[in-house]
Fold:
Amino acid sequence: MLSKDDIERAAQRLEAAERSKEQIRMFSLEYPGMSIEDAYAVQRAWIALKLAGGRRIKGHKIGLTSKAMQNAVGIREPDYGALLDDMFYADGAEVPADRFITIRIEAEIAFVLKDRLTGPECTIFDVLNATDYCTPALEILDTRIKRTDPTGATRKIVDTISDNAANAALVVGGRPFRPNDVDMRWVSALVYRNGQLEETGVAAGVLNHPANGVAWLANKLHPHGVALEPGQVILSGSFIRPIDGKKGDTFHADYGPYGTVSCHFA
Structure:
């Protein structure tokens, strides 16, 4: 296990990388025995630094929800990170590209809660009952840790988790809908970059139902004394592959009857 000092140093390096826009070496190379528990400890320490600086937690994100992505990084369950108050953008926003080191976009469904959700036995039905509404969303991913090392080594799951599950921001938009009004497994998205169709996906790709991801998160956070609180936004996981972006790009996701969500990187 990493020592308390190791965890604090790692968190400070992530914060410095985000501020300087200079990626750091993979923790998996520096700490070959690093565990998933160590990685979440680093993530919590980094978020604690941000909270001490005046940020507020407004929700959570779930990642690596598809079997293909889990197999690619050698895990059997998703990961999660925190959503902070300065990460949120409205539909159609101009997002400053220089805020990020790298830009990647994913299409998701955001759950906005009206009731508290907690484990250890949270179910999909609890999630549906506790949700005020759902809406399409775009997650903006970034990587404060290098994705590829000069040695040829690639990021491991402990790197991604430490790096707040690669989250950087989100765009919330579309037409809000009640979770029980639709079969959410069949909600789909067409995602365009600069008018060109790049990716398509169906929400069943997220653990067969996006609400399953929210239930998983409530149960996963329970041992740490954390619950999902009313008013929080939960990004339930992407059902497309990440799309690379850069300054000048416009992204537009069409969710059919559930509206659209878009942003421009200025």
In short: The helical segments are 4-20, 27-30, 36-52, 67-73, 124-130, 157-162, 210-221.
